[in-house]
Amino acid sequence: MSLLRQFAARPLSWGITAFARLLTAVQPVWQGIDPLAGRPRVYFANHVSHGDFVLIWAVLPPRRREMTRPVAGADYWRKGRLRRFVGEAVFRSLLIERDPNGRSGDPVGQMAVALDGGDSLILFPEGTRNLGDEPLLDFKSGLYWLAKARPEVDFVPVWIDNLNRVLPKGAVIPVPLMCRVTFGAPLHLGAEEGKEEFLTRAQNALLDLRPRPEAG
Amino acid sequence: MMPDVMRDLLTVIAGIGGVLVVASAIGFVLQRRFSPDGGNAAIENLNDRIRAWWVMAIILSIAFLGGQNGVILLFAICSFAALREFMTLTNATRADHRTLAAAFFVVLPVQYYLVWIDWYGLYSIFIPVYVFLLLPVVSALSGVTRNFLVRVAEMQWALMICVFCVSHVPALMDLNIPGYQGRGVLLLAFLVIVVQLSDVLQYVWGKLIGRRKIAPVLSPSKTVEGFVGGALSATLIGAGLWWMTPFGPVGAAMMSLLITVMGFLGGLVMSAIKRDRGVKDWGHTIAGHGGFIDRLDSVIFSAPIFFHVTRYVWGVA
Q1: B197-220 pLDDT per residue, tens
Q2: Are the beta carbons of A175 and B104 separated by less than 8 Å?
Q3: Chain A contact for B287, CB < 8 A?
């Protein structure tokens, strides 16, 4: 990456975090894990809005933030020059081809390589934004395959609360409302654990972090 | 700003600074004696609060020195933060998105603009009349009727509390009081100082001699002794600050008592809302205090009444 691009990425990243804070006064709740402890990890979160990973990213301690990459759909982030620049230079997104036919590499392999390189990942295992009334969609199997490939990595459930009200589907103007990001205790794939078992356990761990379960 | 107003304002700011220096010294000694390793939660919280008070006092002082523009900007920001906290706890749904956007990006700026251009006839009815009638129309057009009255009523309450009431603090500078021209910023400082001192003194008296709880369900920390001690001492201090006001010593005491009582009642009402919604604080943005509304609740309830009583008794239209 050119020096100029790196230089431009700094204020942009600062601006994006500042905007997210102004809008949501986002508050991190570290319930089950030390924010600073070393080792790469996989943060897996509920997905209701395009701003989800920005919120997680904004509450990470700056040092960890630099080493944390969101896993995102290539189709969305390759559209338009600005979006492309933000995705590459600011967030260092790990882009995944969502359409299996257009894929060159295998996504789980890509993620494992990033983890081996010392980076942490932000992952949305629902695979797409949840725009309905269900609190959480069924997880795609990618989370399981990654946990199987890298069993020593911490899989941290992260519940993002209220962001769906800030920018609901179809809305253009975001509305300022307080958001909270809750980090739970890390999960690891058990020795005997099967795919369905692990994915259900991961979903429940995420749902348990909801501050107001009745509100969804 | 006229030189005599500036001189009085600097005296006030120096006074606040002096009180905070004493408070910080007490906090330091208490921490040394009872919580050297940070183990005493009450003392740690006290010191958090004092530190936040320093920040708030500095920001307020800068706003006061900035005159009307500074004060309007500061309270508009407070309204924004308060509204953000309040709307978060309402039942407003996706269907109300446009209504919410209008509340934040139209109603709030318009209200403060009207205060800025000193259009009393409109800013005193803009939210209670125009917004009251037009806001539900926006939500109705969404076609979602579930919880309609609850949603609309909550959003209107939020606007009245966080925008209408708060905007009456900077509106004090608009009052036309014979013999008090150009001194509006001191009246505003008087209100804020007496209300906040009353909160602090009620807390201190309550901790020292508080026994009988006034409203155990709403707010377990409020006691009869704390309220009476706090209200009386804040009234005495308010009377001593009469030179900041157009009231004279007796008038300043009566007005101090009025805003102290209103502030106390405001705290009770806002606590009832928090209990209902199952939260301890409105927010987390002010260390040791909670959210903006936690700090502003007493100002919110006293400002409009203080404004109108002052206008009725001392002002000319």
Answers
A1: 999 999 999 989 988 999 888 888
A2: yes
A3: no
Query: Between A and B, how many CB-CB pairs are < 8 A?
Result: 38
User: Is residue A216 in a domain?
Assistant: no
Contacting residues of A for B84, CB less than 8 Å apart:
25, 176-178
- The answer to whether A69 and A92 have CB atoms below 8 angstroms apart is yes
Residue B262 has pLDDT above 70, yes or no: yes
If one counts every other C-beta atom within 10 angstroms of the C-beta of residue A73, the result is 16
- Contact partners, residue A79, CB within 8 Å, separation at least 6: none
CB contact under 8 Å between A165 and B93, yes or no, is yes
Domain extent, residue B14, equals 1-65
- Are residue B253 and residue B214 in the same domain, yes or no? yes
Instruction: Please tell me which of the candidates A162, A169, A173 has its beta carbon nearest to residue B88.
Output: A162
Name which of B33, B61, B62, B64 is nearest B47 in CA terms. Answer: B33
Question: Which domain, by its residues, includes A91?
Answer: 3-211
Do B104 and A169 count as a contact with CB atoms less than 8 A apart?
Answer: no
Q: What is the bridge-based pairing of β-strands A41-45 and A94-96?
A: unpaired
Question: Does residue A26 surpass a pLDDT of 80?
Answer: yes
Domain count of the fold of chain B: 3
**Which positions in chain A touch B92 (Cβ < 8 Å)?**
165
Given a cut of 70, whether residue B185 has pLDDT beyond it is: yes
The answer to whether the beta carbons of residues A130 and A48 sit under 8 Å apart is: yes
Both B136 and B78 in one domain: the answer is yes
User: How are beta strands A120-123 and A154-161 bridged, if at all?
Assistant: unpaired
Question: pLDDT grade, residue A216 (50/70/90)?
Answer: very low
CATH code, domain carrying A188:
3.40.1130.10
Q: Taking CB atoms and an 8 Å limit, are A178 and B80 in contact across chains?
A: no
Tell me what ipTM this predicted complex has: 0.88
Residues of B in contact with A178 (CB under 8 A): 84-85, 88, 283
Whole-model pTM?
0.92
Domain shared by B194 and B309, yes or no: yes
Taking contacts as CB-CB distances below 8 angstroms, the residues of chain A near B85 are: 178
Chain B residues in contact with A25 by the CB 8 A cut-off are 81, 84, 283-285
Residue located via tokens 């005193």: B124
CA trace torsion B42, B43, B47, B53 (10° rounding): 50
Domain identity same for B142 and B55: no
CB contact under 8 A, A178 and B94: no
